[in-house]
Amino acid sequence: MKKLLIPVVLALVGLAGGLFAGHSMKPAPEPEEGEAAEAAEAAPAPEPEPAPDAPGEYVKLDRQFIVPVIADEKVGALMVLQMAVEMAPDAGGSAPVFDQEPKLRDEFLRVLFLHAQSGGFDGAFTEPRVMDDLRASLTSTARRVIGPGVRAVLITSIIRQDI
What's the number of domains the chain is made of? Predict the structure, then answer.
């Protein structure tokens, strides 16, 4: 039974990630012709938008983060997370991340432990609001350690193993 648990969990996490990615990448519905014509007449011409930011560099942190989830003063589960840091193109690439990796890992673990202690990994821990809060905390921490060149911290995999 235990041999099947990890593959089943991985399959479910992969399925959930695929569904989330498909949902988030779905294009917005286009307005009907009548609505588009009315909007064009009523609204002034929009100012041109700035060009999207150049693609950044994704720096994968080599080792996983393992976070205990405490229940009734015992370890009830382990969370295993893999993360990457998105750096701006002019931020020096992967060098700032790897130069500060020990400090960055320590600060990330502080955030993850606090998240676990506050119940963030209990119940529906992959709920978008919960994950957005965790990503925001990790990104803020990475900017504090590495600098403003950090665009985002990406959680590339997350697994909960109940004990």
Answer: 1
Interhelix angle 128-146/101-117, rounded to 10 degrees, is 150
| Residue-range definition of the domain harbouring residue 114 | 57-162
In one-letter notation, the amino acid at residue 48 is: P
In this structure, how many other beta carbons lie within 10 angstroms of the beta carbon of residue 117?
Answer: 13
Is the pTM here over 0.70, yes or no?
Answer: no
CATH number of the domain enclosing 115:
3.30.479
Residue-by-residue pLDDT tens, the chain, 163 positions: 666 666 655 655 565 556 555 555 556 566 566 555 555 555 544 433 333 456 788 999 989 999 998 888 888 889 999 999 999 888 778 888 898 899 999 999 999 999 998 888 888 888 889 899 999 999 999 999 999 989 999 999 999 998 8
CB distance 67 to 113 below 8 Å: yes
Number of residues that this document lists for the chain? 163
Domain presence at residue 67: yes
Long-range contacts of 14-17 (CB under 8 A, 24+ apart): 16/126
